[in-house]
Design a protein that fits this description.
Length: 208
């Protein structure tokens, strides 16, 4: 059992960040630690307790390189399409760290893709029931990793090339990807809560 950081539940929830520049690309990540975190993630809720999730853990350097190439291509298009106005300091930091991750994704020790059984085509209309059976588990994985001194960054840009990545990894047609988490130990563990909109701007009681 890995040693856990001394974080109470509120600290864990409020200091689990998307980590990019502070991912330690040099320190190996034992598969046993990833398995521990995934065992925690499997306790997350899923619709009708279906547990239709699948977790593709990628450690092979060549596979990581190919997934990273798809991610970098998608990020390049995404960044080019965004307006280049006078961003605030927070957005500038996000842009810089996002570019860094796109440049170094192949060097991250472990990539984890969260996917889910669909039984065929994606459902029409609101798909909350489907993705709501995967994403809580993926977030629980992020929390469990943070508790063990590892970081991750919630990413979905590779999904522009979901079919190519599925073919690369041999995923069946009935399984769809929902999130990609680059995983590494972090350089330091002193993460803090991030600025957020005030609660009263987004809180609605008994109606809008």
């Amino acid at each position: 059992m890995s040693e856990l950081l001394p974080l109470d539940p509120d600290q864990l929830l409020t200091t689990t960040r998307s980590v990019r520049k502070r991912l330690d690309l040099e320190r190996p990540v034992p598969l046993s630690v990833v398995r521990e975190a995934l065992e925690v993630a499997l306790q997350a809720p899923s619709g009708s307790n279906s547990q239709g999730w699948h977790w593709i853990v990628i450690t092979d350097p060549e596979l990581k390189k190919q997934v990273a190439a798809h991610y970098a291509r998608s990020y390049s298009d995404y960044a080019a399409a965004r307006p280049s106005g006078d961003d605030g300091s927070t957005m500038q930091r996000v842009r810089s760290s996002s570019q860094y991750l796109a440049d170094t994704m192949a060097e991250v020790p472990v990539l984890v893709i969260g996917a889910i059984e669909t039984g065929g085509d994606l459902p029409e209309g609101n798909q909350a029931g489907l993705w709501g059976s995967l994403l809580p588990g993926a977030w629980s994985l992020s929390l469990a990793l943070r508790a063990r001194g590892l970081g991750s960054a919630w990413t979905t840009l590779h999904l522009v090339y979901e079919r190519e990545v599925a073919e690369l990894l041999g995923l069946p047609d009935t399984v769809r990807q929902g999130v990609l988490l680059p995983v590494a130990y972090t350089k330091g563990t002193d993460f803090k809560p991030a600025p957020r909109r005030p609660l009263d701007e987004v809180l609605h009681i008994d109606g809008w």
